[in-house]
Amino acid sequence: MKTPILGQAYVARTINAADNRMVNLFPEATPEGSKDTGFLNRAPGLKTLVSVGTGPIRAVWANQTRGEDAFVVSGNEFYRLSTSYVASLIGTVSGTGPVSIADNGTQLFLACNPNGFIYNKTTQVFQQITDFDFAGAVTVGYIDGYFVFNQPDSQIVWVCDLLDGLSISPLNFASAESAPDILLSLAVNNREVWLFGTNSTEVWYDAALPGFPLAPIQGAFNEVGCLAAYSVAKLDNSLFWLGADARGFGVVYRNQGYNALRVSTHAIEFAIQNYDVLTDAIAYTYQQEGHSFYVLTFPTVGKTWVYDVATGLWHERAGFKNGDFTRHRSNCQMNFNQDIIVGDFENGNIYALDLDVYSDGTGIQKWLRSWRALPQGANNYKRTAQHTLQLDAETGVGLNLYPEYEVAEELTTQNGSNLVTTISSNPLITTIHTAAPGYYPQAMLRWSDDGGHTWSNEHWSSMGQLGNYGKRIFWRRLGMTVKLRDRVYEVSGTDPVKISIMAAELQLSPTRA
């Protein structure tokens, strides 16, 4: 029978109900006539492009419509990045947290919370905003020739003078007073300024008023606020953010019109609301091959969650260090040089998110999927003998470490004193024997018979040498379900090869008990 390996990440409050974890894999639906309803695709790896400064990379910015160079904030340094990935130091900035950037065509405004900086791309002059009326900026946007920014720890939103981020008139501000909460963040979407308070959100527009030009849109107010200033990100013609209101916190929303539409699941909310620190959450968005992703990271607790607008499904992204999953290395994003560029949270590395790269820079990318063996509602609470599990995945994608040899079929026999079969690699491995020139990536299987509380040892199965497209991935003699008469399987891997999983087939037989 088909075992339900497809789907999304959903680990419920009780794992006895759902323990469907998915790390560094994302689902893609396929149309009628395809082999199955969809498949699991390996998340993009990190292709190292350049190292800029000492890091961390706090912001990246590019204006692809103008074909200009990109800009990078690395630690306390501000750089220009050419299309050949040569970095040139421009100046220094303050702070340690994320940096919000906006562009008016001539100037870049860097909001470093609280300080602000302006870089004139024409004159190449970089300087701090020293206007007496500048009271600090948390986040910044651009609308109709104006930089608009929110003042720290206040309800106040400001605009600079028209096309001049260095000049701020003393009356060019207003208060977001529809609710008595602090204005935490702002974002410009479709020529409207969304003002996110801690418990409410209101939307303003350019009313071309003298002095301060913005005015609130009547009725564009809702009682859902924002929990983390840098969780707000634009995607799919909408804004996404980590929300909070007077009734609770830790729900992910997108706007639908002027309303807040919940997109997180109960499982995602259970995970988020149990983290120790939420207010430092950061987010970025990107589009790749028609998938639009909202990437939400919690730096203190080291977790990264990703929502795919194309499918409406969630998965985890993660680094892998010292045998454990960590937060994903990406900290911010830009579209530049026909690449999806991200910066490292820990050092100065700039990467491309690449679906044909299967490692995180020089580090391992581990993928993992866990799922219930039986389809929903199929468990009759009787023991089953589970004979074989076959993973329907693209095989023959291994590396050829010895290109001077012709790739041969995989053998598993002894040939004199030489073991002819090579087993996988990455740093988990044993020796690659010279008698077998190819490289055999491995899929690793564990199972749990108590709902996901404890697990068996790992059992490895080869995915075949490069070019062995007919290789079948099997595990046999999987034992009998006991205890809860239930089983959760978990398959994972670390080898730097393509992973595409279409289905899994389980052969079992019932017993009398």
Structural summary, described in words:
- The protein is mostly beta strands and 513 residues long.
- The protein has two domains: 10-43 and 369-510, Jelly Rolls; 45-364, Methylamine Dehydrogenase, Chain H, CATH 2.130.10.
- Helix content is 2%, strand content 47%.
- The radius of gyration is 26 Å and the shape is globular.
- The model is unreliable at 402-437 (pLDDT under 50).
Provide the CATH topology of the largest domain: Methylamine Dehydrogenase, Chain H
Structural class: mainly beta
Strand content is over 45%
Strand order of the largest sheet: 3-39-46-43-44
Low-confidence stretches: 402-437
Defining key terms:
five-stranded antiparallel β-sheet; 47 strands; Methylamine Dehydrogenase, Chain H; globular; Jelly Rolls; mainly beta; 2% helix; 2 domains; 513 residues
Which helices and strands, and how do they pair?
Blueprint: E1 10-11, E2 19-20, E3 22-23, E4 25-29, E5 38-42, E6 45-51, E7 57-61, E8 70-74, E9 77-81, E10 87-92, E11 100-103, E12 107-111, E13 116-120, E14 125-128, E15 140-143, E16 146-150, E17 156-159, E18 173-175, E19 183-189, E20 192-197, E21 201-206, E22 214-222, E23 225-226, E24 233-235, E25 238-245, E26 248-256, E27 259-262, H1 266-273, E28 282-288, E29 291-298, E30 303-308, E31 313-317, E32 319-321, E33 324-326, E34 330-336, E35 339-344, E36 349-354, E37 359-360, E38 363-364, E39 367-372, E40 384-393, E41 414-415, E42 418-419, E43 442-448, E44 459-462, E45 473-476, E46 488-493, E47 500-510
Antiparallel strand pairs: 1-2, 3-39, 4-5, 5-47, 6-36, 7-8, 8-9, 9-10, 11-12, 12-13, 13-14, 15-16, 16-17, 17-18, 19-20, 20-21, 21-22, 23-25, 24-25, 25-26, 26-27, 28-29, 29-30, 30-31, 32-33, 34-35, 35-36, 37-38, 39-46, 40-45, 40-47, 41-42, 43-44, 43-46
